[in-house]
Amino acid sequence: MEDTTVDDFDHTLFKKLYEEGLKNSSKKLEDELPLPKFYSKIPDQDNIVCLKLREEARTAFLQTKSKSLLDNAELQNLWTLLDKHHSTPYSSSEQMINYLDFKKVGEIAGPKYRLFFTPEIFAKLLHNDVHGRVSTMAIFNYVMRKVWLQQTRIGLSLYDATGQGFLNEMDLENYITELIPTLPQLEGLEKSFHSFYVCTAVRKFLFFLDPLKLGKVRIQDILASGFLDELLELRDEDLPKDAQDSNWFSAPSALRVYGQYLNLDINRNGMLCQEELRRFGTGTLTPVFIQRVFEECMTYEKEMDYKTYLDFVLAMDNKREPQALQYFFKLLDVNHRNYLNSFDLLFYFKGVQDLMALHKQEIIAFEDVKDEIFDMVRPTDPLKLTLQDFIRSGYGDTVINILIDLDGFWSYENRETVVSDRNNSEKQDN
């Protein structure tokens, strides 16, 4: 057995003393300054008292945050200050302000405005002015937009039952239901239609912002999407008719979509069967595609309800959008392999060929169409088409039209004739 050296003894003694000191100091720290709790789980639904306490605390917090925002009088004060402190050289077309005057306005305005008068914001708003100035209108609009976003976020958060930054379908329904009386463009809606209007409005948020079908959307995504801007556009009493027609949330748009649903419902049972949905649009969607819709989408005893129909309409009207392409790709991917091959394309195009024969039209060979599809999409794998290929290529919507709709196919097939006719018409007009 080897002798223990002095160095070994010193090392062992030091380690022992160090560990005892560390343990004592940690114990003393815990006694004097207990570590804060970083996570508290959401109370169970059965714990009514804790849930109510949590709700009240969140409401009080949001009200405090709301009071810290600039109100209308303070925004008017900001505009007055910007108007008084615009910088030379003066212009009759637009008032501009340099960085020194920008900082001066922030100091005069006071602490509540300070977060809007930082070097970062000035640099963000600075463009090509040769004197290094920013438009006072750009500053004011920036502040207005920020305040509006904060107000809206607080307003949406009041409907967030769990306080986790998400709104589920019921939360969104409650929000829009209480919003309806504040929108002059919806004053003419009969109360009996309100529930259908709310359903129509909510589906757009869920279709585009919840592609994984989790049943909830992030408040942050709602604010970033622009859909809320479109909805709140209905506050404008003088909104032009063309703007109403193109706005999914407008009364004419909601009534039109619901009216189309009722017209398709021949037996008036409030649901759509496959035969009824085949009459959608120009009635040229292929039966095989309609069958896939009913196989993959939520139905009740093989019939489609209004919510599922709304998803279908949103996909058909927005074929270029990634969420719509995802919707259609799921239907086209009959074997659930996350890609399409030539056999999948043939399966769907056979439905188009059947409609050609039914309408006594010239039958187009599949091989020609298949080659054109692969040439358009240019997939990473030359034998497989993926959803990412559809999105990346920019031709996903064209491929979908070719495979599911006879009219869509002929529109693609005759595209050069259509463009030529349009150009000739424009030349004659000029």
Give a concise summary.
The protein is built from 22 helices and four strands. It has helices spanning 6-32, 48-67, 72-84, 99-109, 119-125, 136-157, 169-179, 194-209, 219-225, 227-232, 241-245, 251-264, 274-277, 287-296, 306-317, 322-332, 342-358, 366-377, 387-393, 396-404, 406-413, 415-429; strands at 96-97, 134-135, 166-168, 216-218.
3D architecture notes:
The protein has three domains: 48-153, Recoverin, domain 1; 161-252, Orthogonal Bundle (Recoverin, domain 1), CATH 1.10.238; 270-421, Orthogonal Bundle (Recoverin, domain 1). It is 61% helix and 2% strand. The chain has 22 helices and four strands. Helix 2 (48-67) packs antiparallel against helix 6 (136-157), helix 3 (72-84) runs antiparallel to helix 4 (99-109) and helix 8 (194-209) packs across helix 12 (251-264). It is globular, with a radius of gyration of 31 Å. Mean pLDDT is 88; it is low at 418-427.
Which helices and strands appear, and what pairs or packs with what?
Layout: H1 6-32, H2 48-67, H3 72-84, E1 96-97, H4 99-109, H5 119-125, E2 134-135, H6 136-157, E3 166-168, H7 169-179, H8 194-209, E4 216-218, H9 219-225, H10 227-232, H11 241-245, H12 251-264, H13 274-277, H14 287-296, H15 306-317, H16 322-332, H17 342-358, H18 366-377, H19 387-393, H20 396-404, H21 406-413, H22 415-429
Antiparallel strand pairs: 1-2, 3-4
Helix pairs in contact: 2-6, 3-4, 3-6, 7-8, 8-12, 8-15, 20-21
